[in-house]
# Entry
Amino acid sequence: MTRALERPPAARAAAGLHVGVVLAVALAGTAHRLAAQTDPPAGDVASAADSLAALYPPHERAAPVPFGPGERMEYRVEILWFDVGEGSLSIEAVDTVRGHDVYRAVMEIDGSMAGLKVHDVYTSFFDVETLQSWRFLRDMRQVNYRGTRYYEMLPEKGIWDRPDKDPDAEDRSGPLGSSLPLDDISFIYFLRQMELEVGRTYTLPRYFKEDGNPVVLKVVRRERRKVDAGEFDCLVIRPVIQTDGMFSEGGEAELYVSDDDRRLLVYLKSNVPRFPGALELYLKDYTPGVPLNPRLRNADER
# Structure
């Protein structure tokens, strides 16, 4: 398997955040072109898939999940019924973290309204076999707030660690909430491979911060949702994490995932602190990735 070379922690954190910022600039600069583009010829799609398959050979122990490197979902961002920007959720690559093969997943939201700006970049490095998170970066810029956080998950020590903090800082580290921890973004991918039933509540003590547990996922209903990319039969999920962030209890978030094997994130709604109104993401384009699990790879190639 192709692997990225490991770099010192500070360099890896800066690189992850730099990638997010570069993507934001690219999204802002190409929004109109993306809207005007038609679907690429079938030959181009097949060629791109072949290139991904060559870059990422099958991984014998990869979990059988409905996503893989190269997958990208692009969104139109609304606040108070106004189009205010662009967003994306993508698996950019397969990397390594301390010898573990991981997906590098990035969620990015970039919007502005009446001089108020939101630019959030979340980067998760989660295991291709267990789906547990090994590293999480969060760069948030919301109105008059800016915060950057960098977490390393260390199950062998039972702690999470923040290399971006002074070694003597009280909040430099804390108890890990699970031996198989998940962060805000890896949770989205984890639920995509779950068997979900309407009316059920799933309680998962898997958040990486002990005081964030348990994470509660309520599957409240089925609903047909129309977005820019088309109409989808969806499962509506209300996630609650007992800490700050996108899926905190005060955010009253709702996730609409497609009611099919792909479990695409079709629509997301969450209240944003210090911002007038809820932030909404509408799926406008989807690019599939290449599965790493050999059984799924062979099925795709038939």
The helical segments are 9-36, 42-55, 184-191, 294-301.
